[in-house]
């Protein structure tokens, strides 16, 4: 992919992602309306569906300032503590040049070559093979790799992985994915809370009626649809960006073969025990597959490698045993 094409797609993808992110935040108001609809149906039985919808709309208008302020406050808290939470979940720890000279030098050289501010470097002590970038601003940006990845990859392969993660930072992917995860997390929390209250609560038969029952069904359907939509938006953000990050890595390193070999080694070996789904979505490979690939956060490795072959790379095929992995080709 030519540089012009790459940057054009990056700019287009950023615009689409911002639009999707705004839509994701607006889903919070859908939950407020659905919650108001449930409350009206429980508190004022025997009315028509039109009555409940109108009353819920009035409640939404009254609740908009509170919902907006609460959402902003949640975002500010997450903005301040998101990196600490991610490190606590994964066990990531910061390392210095003295502790990891090889890794530090590889990352520093890539940053110098493109004038990129050096992110913090972190390691997770695990045999899993994976890496991710995180943070919401230049002061928070970090690249985290596992000790297993360090042991399994050559310098060229590790450089390709670091180039992939740096591209996520340079393109603004990391910030958008973290924010999307925060907002979707809030939506998931309220969805579970409302459904628990719905299934554990007791309905008064004297306050029932077809109108109330239908209003409750509409509210439940809205909550389910909003939650599914938030999940699909997160997946769309993640899947589309992996191709661009792969292309950005090749642009940085000029070595598509190294990234292909690293992806083949990482393939199905990247599960981070104890990591949340939001963290796994940030990784270079997410082995947690969803139903019929609909809920997979990353495009299949085969599809990514096919795109890299179009950039001049050569596929070595799946690697069943890392100990017997084919050596890299000799330098040209």
Fold topology:
Layout: H1 3-43, H2 49-90, E1 93-94, H3 101-114, E2 120-124, E3 131-134, E4 142-146, H4 147-152, H5 155-170, H6 173-200, H7 210-253, H8 256-266, H9 277-280, H10 301-310
Helix pairs in contact: 1-2, 1-6, 1-7, 2-6, 2-7, 3-5, 5-7, 5-8, 6-7, 8-10
Percent of residues in helices comes to 55-70%
Mean pLDDT: 83
Described by strand count, sense and barrel closure, the largest sheet is: 4 strands, mixed
Sketch the topology as an H/E string, one letter per element: HHEHEEEHHHHHHH
Structure in words:
The protein has 332 residues and is mostly helical. It has one domain (3-319). It contains ten helices and four strands; from the N terminus they run H-H-E-H-E-E-E-H-H-H-H-H-H-H. Strand 3 (131-134) and strand 4 (142-146) form a beta hairpin. The protein is elongated, with a radius of gyration of 23 Å. It starts with a helix and ends in a 22-residue tail after the last helix.
């Amino acid at each position: 992919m030519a540089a012009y094409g790459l940057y054009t797609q990056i700019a287009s993808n950023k615009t689409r992602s911002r639009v999707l992110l705004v839509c994701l935040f607006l889903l919070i108001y859908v939950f407020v309306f659905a919650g108001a609809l449930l409350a009206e149906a429980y508190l004022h039985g025997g009315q028509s569906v039109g009555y409940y919808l109108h009353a819920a709309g009035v409640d939404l208008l009254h609740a908009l300032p509170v919902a907006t302020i609460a959402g902003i406050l949640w975002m500010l808290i997450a903005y301040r503590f998101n990196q600490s939470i991610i490190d606590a979940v994964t066990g990531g720890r910061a390392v210095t040049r003295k502790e990891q000279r090889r890794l530090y030098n590889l990352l520093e050289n890539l940053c110098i070559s493109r004038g990129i501010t050096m992110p913090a470097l972190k390691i997770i002590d695990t045999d899993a093979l994976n890496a991710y970038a995180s943070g919401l601003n230049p002061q928070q940006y970090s690249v985290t790799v596992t000790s297993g990845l360090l042991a399994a990859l050559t310098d060229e392969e590790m450089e390709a992985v670091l180039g992939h993660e740096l591209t996520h930072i340079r393109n603004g992917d990391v910030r958008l994915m973290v924010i999307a995860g925060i907002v979707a997390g809030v939506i998931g929390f309220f969805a579970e809370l409302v459904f628990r209250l719905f299934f554990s609560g007791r309905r008064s038969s004297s306050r029932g009626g077809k109108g109330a029952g239908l209003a409750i069904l509409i509210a439940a359907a809205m909550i389910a649809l909003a939650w599914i939509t938030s999940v699909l938006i997160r997946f769309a953000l993640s899947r589309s960006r992996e191709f661009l990050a792969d292309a950005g890595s090749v642009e940085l390193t000029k070595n598509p073969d190294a990234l292909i070999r690293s992806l083949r080694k990482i393939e199905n070996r990247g599960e981070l025990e104890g990591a949340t789904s939001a963290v796994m979505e940030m990784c270079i490979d997410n082995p947690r597959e969803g139903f019929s690939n609909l809920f997979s956060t990353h495009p299949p490795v085969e599809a990514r490698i096919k795109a890299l072959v179009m950039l001049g790379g050569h596929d070595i095929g799946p690697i069943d045993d890392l100990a017997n992995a084919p050596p890299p080709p000799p330098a040209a």
